[in-house]
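4.2 Preliminary Data

To establish feasibility before requesting continued support, the project team ran the inverse folding procedure on a target of 405 residues. The structure was first converted into the token representation described in Section 3, and no sequence information of any kind was made available to the design step. The complete token record follows.
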């Protein structure tokens, strides 16, 4: 899909963290906290902490008892998350506890108040008739949250959530040496609006809004492995999220929650030529009919792996032709299917059959929900644009390269 190549570099471990101050804080704390509120924070933090960490302490959570709240921080290779939970704090201090053990304990406790008491050796959790003791660790080597003072934008959560959720499936899942490392979504803030783009080199999905503008352009490249965490972070509750940046991190702040993601280095492919291309033909289909037809044809159209994949075809022909509009599918050595479709509008001037990797069409059909779908094309060998009708202010374009079979 792209004419040139330029590698995008993943972040390395040596530029991820800022260590906290060397001073060892007091590990003797005493507080009471609502189990349900603590569980919400721990479920979110569990998405950050990785079981196999290069640094053993990073499989733990930092707990800081402050005047009226408990602050929790978790660190992964690419992401850092900090959550504040209201608490009745009788004695302040901080220590580290194993993340998975703490989450498992709280998950199984009843919806009541948890009393947490600790000393330099261990922390005790009491809730109802249950009592657990966990070994504590000092916090002096635990990373501090990245400072990010450059404010990029403040966005309604539902808007950013919708845009990122739409493009997630189109981002590449693995790096391909010798080409771009495309495992990410590109966010562009500019005077013309906000654009989010994801591509794996064979397909491209672009979502744009013209009402979220910025005087100067800012381009951010979020790693794909951070996107599910960002979506979960944004889904906790509605409101607005503020985006701030430092040299290599983007910080999302929603209320007292902060999520820092390490940005990818390097350049994303130049998508402008693809997005600006013109099409000679178009047809519009009813949205639910398009989804249902693709899902039925996927019985054959998604079989196979690697270079042997199932195919879904669009066959368009002028009025008066046999089988004017069809969706077809076949799998090598397995079977085939076909279904006639009735477009809402069409302008086919000559018969054309366009073939696609069936999984690419099924991915799109599963994620969209629209009253109508517009398909734009030129011929059987060049890219096709599929655009769902939207009523949320977003313009969505899914651009696919055909497969020649």
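Position-by-position output of the design step:
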């Amino acid at each position: 899909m792209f004419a040139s190549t330029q590698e995008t570099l993943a972040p390395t471990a040596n530029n991820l963290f800022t260590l906290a101050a060397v001073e060892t804080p007091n590990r003797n704390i005493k507080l009471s906290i609502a189990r349900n509120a603590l569980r919400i924070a721990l479920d979110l933090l569990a998405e950050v902490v990785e079981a196999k960490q290069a640094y053993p302490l990073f499989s733990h959570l930092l707990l800081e008892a402050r005047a009226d709240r408990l602050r929790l921080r978790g660190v992964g290779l690419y992401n850092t998350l900090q959550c504040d939970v209201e608490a009745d704090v009788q004695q302040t201090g901080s220590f580290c506890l194993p993340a998975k053990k703490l989450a498992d304990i709280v998950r199984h406790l009843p919806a009541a108040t948890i009393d947490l008491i600790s000393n330099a050796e261990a922390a005790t959790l009491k809730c109802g008739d249950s009592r657990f003791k966990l070994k504590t660790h000092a916090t002096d080597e635990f990373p501090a949250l990245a400072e990010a003072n450059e404010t990029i934008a403040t966005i309604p959560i539902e808007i950013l959530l919708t845009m990122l959720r739409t493009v997630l499936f189109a981002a590449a899942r693995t790096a391909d040496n010798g080409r771009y490392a495309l495992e990410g979504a590109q966010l562009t803030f500019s005077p013309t609006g906000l654009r989010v783009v994801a591509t794996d080199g064979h397909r491209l999905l672009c979502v744009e809004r013209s009402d979220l503008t910025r005087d100067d352009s800012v381009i951010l490249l979020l790693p794909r492995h951070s996107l599910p965490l960002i979506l979960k972070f944004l889904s906790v509750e509605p409101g607005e999220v503020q985006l701030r940046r430092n040299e290599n991190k983007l910080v999302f702040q929603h209320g007292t929650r902060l999520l820092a993601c390490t940005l990818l280095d390097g350049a994303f492919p130049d998508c402008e030529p693809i997005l600006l291309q013109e099409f000679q033909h178009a047809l519009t289909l009813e949205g639910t009919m398009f989804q249902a037809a693709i899902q039925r044809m996927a019985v054959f159209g998604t079989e196979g792996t690697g270079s042997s994949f199932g195919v879904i075809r669009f066959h368009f022909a002028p009025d008066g032709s046999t089988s004017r509009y069809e969706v077809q599918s076949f799998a090598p050595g397995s079977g085939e299917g076909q279904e006639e479709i009735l477009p809402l509008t069409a302008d086919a001037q000559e018969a054309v059959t366009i073939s696609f990797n069936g999984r690419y069409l099924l991915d799109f059909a599963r994620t969209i929900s629209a009253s109508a779908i517009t398909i734009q094309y030129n011929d059987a060998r060049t890219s096709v644009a599929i655009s769902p009708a939207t009523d949320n202010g977003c313009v969505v374009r899914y651009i696919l390269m055909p497969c020649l079979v």
